[in-house]
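Listing S7. Sequence submitted for prediction.
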Amino acid sequence: MAEVVTGEKNHLEVHLERWRRRKRSARWWMVGGILLFLAGPAFTKPMYSLFGLLIVSVSAMVMRRTSRELEVLGVGLAGEKEAEEAFSNLPGEYVIYSDLEIESDGKISQVDHVVVGPTGVFVVETKNVYGRVVGNADDADWTQFKTTESGHVYEKQMYSPVKQVGTHVYRLAERLKEEQIHVWVQGIVYFVHPDTDVEMTGFSKIPVFSAGDEGTEKLLDFILASNRKPLSKEIRDKIGEVLSDCLM
């Protein structure tokens, strides 16, 4: 079983806690606004009610925003955990580094996972969305189609995960070169939600796997079957030192 290495705290967990605090604060402001609104008639102060109503309205908007952000962050965190569980099924020679900040040329990439093993170095962009995802390998934006329980279909634009992981691959390769480590870095896109159907057209050196299409097994097979020059344990350890310094 592969080893999963993480930092002190996932960046999504940090953001989740921040938005939870905002939601708690908004809830208390709403309570105060309600009390102020009720105090207006009691003290014959109409302005109290007006300000109270304003506070309640703003607090309600903030709570709606925080609820949306918490949902998105929660889904993202769950997806990363599912990916870690899948990668842990790789052989013991493999190490998975999760949640990293890779800096090169003064720019930073937030990377979900880097898998290091005898068959190479793999940067994995994990997506936990559902529905039908359509895009061309060369396009900057892809489209996600979701069907509601009532049967209504709506679409949402998302930045191409192929382009996204391509940037991560470049930054990691450059970061390793700074340490005189010259290895091929392979990008991978992994949709972890079982109800996701991905349709990518065009050619890309970056494969896209979807858990709903036996993608987990195909992803692991892709990593294990990589036929590039095997990495020695010495090189893997050097790469691991660099990546450990990049953990969040």
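Caption to Listing S7: primary sequence and predicted structure tokens for the chain studied. The chain has a mean pLDDT of 89. The first strand starts at residue 3 and ends at 6.
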